[in-house]
Amino acid sequence: MKATNLLSLCAAIFVLTACEKEDNAVTRPVQFTSTTYKSLGGHDDKGKPDNLLPKDQISPAVSNLITGSLPENKDMRTSNPELLKSKSFEDIAVTQQSDIFLTFVSHGTISNYNTIAFYTYPSNQPPKSPKDIKDITYIFPNAGYQTPLQSGDKVKIGRFEPGTSVGFVLMQNAWNPTTKTINKDAVHFCANDILNPEVDPNLKKHTVLINYPAENKVLVGFEDMDRTREDCDHDFNDVVLYATVVKL
Questions:
Q1: What does DSSP say about strands 164-171 and 135-140: parallel, antiparallel, or unpaired?
Q2: Contact assessment for residue 94 and residue 161, using Cβ atoms and an 8 Å cutoff
Q3: Are strands 92-94 and 164-171 parallel, antiparallel or unpaired?
Q4: b (16+ CB within 10 A) / e for 7-45
Q5: What is the pLDDT of residue 21?
Q6: pTM of the predicted model as reported, rounded to 2 decimal places
Q7: Which of 3, 4, 118, 223 is buried most, with the most CB atoms less than 10 Å from its CB?
Q8: pLDDT digits 0-9 by tens, 86-113
Q9: Are 113 and 145 in contact (CB under 8 A)?
């Protein structure tokens, strides 16, 4: 076989092998290269926000709902599979001018210094890619391992107009306890499944939202691990919060 033909054959095998690897990928990196990152306020050296409001008293009803819906080390695919099936409830859709507050409840991670943030978009134009997310705003710089937050710590994330949807995002291990900064290039696990890295649509969800209209609250539970990993427990309580929507 001529050298040129041999080179061509090797190149073709390389391309086919590369394509096969791509086709077999279980996750694909999602990069928010055109997104602007902002912060609601400053924070101390431990990542505690300086804009905390008076602490919420979490009601027994909300505590019981969280405990029952997001049990520790219980795979949600068997414990509460209905929470994973809904594709219509990925965000908070504002239908009337509203103030929205976010309250930290708990975390269940053993190592990740997770950052919690939010983004918005027109409700009638849900995102199809990271390019559709113009801004991401940090709320809790460290809501994970060694968090300085206490249950009930609350901030106001803003006033929102009708037709706006608010989505939450967990940035995996984004808080750096040495530099006291947030890594915007950390893996993002977003409320909108399409923005998450897993390929299998059954594994793309990283956020469950549970509506609790009795107190105008939406409970938010995050899974902070790549869901294709064998050691992922799929319990969606690595960070637990709730949003309070106050219509004006």
A1: unpaired
A2: yes
A3: antiparallel
A4: eeeeeeeeeeeeeeeeeeeebeebebeebeeeebeebee
A5: 45
A6: 0.89
A7: 223
A8: 655 689 999 999 999 999 999 988 889 9
A9: yes
CB 32 within 8 A of CB 125: no
Pairwise CA distance, residues 109 & 142, whole Å: 12
Q: What are residue 127's DSSP bridge partners?
A: none
What is the 3-class SS of the chain, one letter each residue?
CCHHHHHHHHHHHHHHHHHHHHHCCCECCCCCCCCEEEECCCECCCCCECCCECCCCCCHHHHHHHHHHCCCCCCHHHHCCHHHHCCCCCCEEECCCEEEEEEEEEECCCCCCCEEEEEEEECCCCCCCHHHCCEEEEEECCCCCCCCCCCCCEEEEEEECCCEEEEEEEECCCEECCCCEECCCCCEEECCHHHCCECCHHHCCCEEEEEEHHHCEEEEEECCCCCCCCCCCCCCCCEEEEEEEEEC
**Would you say 123 and 168 are in contact if contact means Cβ atoms under 8 Å apart?**
no
Question: Quick one: tokens of 90?
Answer: 């990925």
74-90: average pLDDT: 82
